[in-house]
Amino acid sequence: MLGKLFLTSLAVFGAVKAQANPCSAKSIKIETQSDLDGLVTCTTISGDLVLGPNLVTATINTIRTIKGDLIVANAVNLQTLIAPELASIEGTFNMTSLTVLGTLTFNSLKSVGQIYWQTLPALTTLGFAAQVTQADKVTITDTILESLDGINLVSVQQFNINNNRYLKEVTVQLTNITDSLAIEFNSPSVAASFPNLTWANNATFRSCGSVSLPVLASVNGSLGFFENTFESLVTPKLTEVGTGTGGGDITFANNTALTNVSMPLLTQIYGTLQFVNDSQVREITGFPKLSVVHGSIDISGEFDEADFPAIKDVRGGFNLQTTAQFNCTDFDQLQGGVVKGSYVCSGAVTNPGTEGTDPTTNGGSGDSGKKNSAGRFTANKSFAAIPALILLVALL
Predict the structure, then answer these.
(1) Beta carbons of 61 and 38 less than 8 angstroms apart
(2) How distant is the alpha carbon of residue 214 from its chain centre?
(3) Which of 3, 286, 298, 370 could be bridged to 262 by S-S, CB 3.0 to 4.6 A?
């Protein structure tokens, strides 16, 4: 009996102690500023800190570390969020649907597990005086941020910045990106600059005003440029894209102002090199050292010059279709040797298409087989023998 009484008393004591020490709770729900003030004895929160939807202003005092997540969701009246001493969030810094949040001041914050911010239509600037230099994943979408000043990472797994319509620049000191980089659908004039980025797994740039990758040397996956407004793209240090096991493409599509692409050191692509609907590109000559393409070369548009002087091995197909008059003589020599797959080279094409489409020239429909200048069909041996056969029949 005494033993049971002792155990019961111990359990009650433990429960009271847990209530008296909210710092160690698995999750702390905050409804008012008074709730936050009740954490004044905490420098470390062991679990999640969840701010409720009715807050108008919130100041997180004394807390330096949150070992779980900091979650602020659907607080449609929250105007100000301040955490003067918070240096580390080991979980996710999650802010979603905060429609009037205009002040975000975390002057000590340096390390975050993940940043996930979505729908912050009143937030224009970040108050991160100490600079966030460590995060595994970053997703920032649907804000009116004008810059990412205060986020200055060195290494990251994912970096996804999209649909921030007033974002004018993305300048980050990243050296490597182990999963994916995506800068998409922000301000059409956004300047994306990665001055120290030497290696990325995948990288996508869409609707950018400029892209700067001065030291990028290797991309393990794919590199894509879509619907951008810049005129020139130069990657002076890039040597290869893709891997032998995963492939990896370089794609330029629908970049309506693009006139120049230069990748002077690129030697190998493990996937496909593609240009499609880049209407101002007149020359595709910026690949002087490209020698091996494990996929295909697939270029279509309005260019009148293309050259791959070092090409030795194209293990997929070759497709060149252009609206301009084009002499395919040099490329014809690649068919069946350098080019292992299907081969099309055609100029004066009405609607240039990507690999697998049959070119239609201004002189009529294209036919299967090798094309030369102006889309004229070069006869195969079986067709070439027909006139001789007719002559032989006539003589008989």
Answers:
(1) no
(2) 17
(3) 286
- Please state the domain count of the chain: 1
> What does the DSSP 8-state code read for residue 185?
S
Residue 339 lies in a domain: yes
* Structure-block tokens of residue 129: 């005086």
Confidence label for 394 from pLDDT (cuts 50, 70 and 90): very low
- Select from 174, 177, 72, 59 the least CA-distant residue to 115: 72
Cα–Cα dist 114/199, whole Å: 21
- Which of 190, 195, 187, 230 minimizes the C-alpha distance to 212? 195
Evaluate if residue 188 carries a pLDDT over 50: yes
Burial (CB count <10 Å: 0-12, 13-18, 19+), residue 281: buried
Walk across the sheet containing 103-105 and list its strands. Answer: 57-59, 80-82, 103-105
Query: Which tens digits make up the pLDDT trace of 119-156?
Result: 999 999 999 999 999 999 999 999 999 999 999 999 99
Give the pLDDT confidence of 217-227 residue by residue, as tens digits: 999 999 999 99
Structure-token pair, residue 386: 């027909």
> How many whole angstroms separate alpha carbon 31 and alpha carbon 93?
18
Identify the CA nearest to 278 among candidates 261, 259, 254, 262.
Answer: 254
Distance CA 280, CA 92 (A): 43
Rounded Cα–Cα distance for residues 48 and 19 (Å): 16
Using DSSP, state whether 218 is helix, strand or coil.
strand
Q: Tokens 């433990």 sit at which residue?
A: 14
Which residues on neighbouring strands pair with residue 138, listed in sequence order?
A: 115, 159
- Is residue 12 in a domain? no
Which tokens belong to 224?
A: 């894509």
Question: 162 in a domain, yes or no?
Answer: no
Mean pLDDT of the chain: 90
Cα three-residue angle 261-264-266, rounded to 5 degrees: 100
Range of the domain at 320: 217-396
**Identity of the amino acid at 302:** E
pLDDT, residue 20, reads 60
* Token code pair at residue 355: 């690999």
The answer to whether the Cα torsion of 167, 56, 111, 116 is positive or negative is: negative
Q: Is residue 144 part of a domain?
A: no
- In a 13 Å sphere around the CA of 177, the CA atoms on its Cβ side amount to 28
Nearest to residue 65, comparing CAs of 34, 25, 117, 108? 108
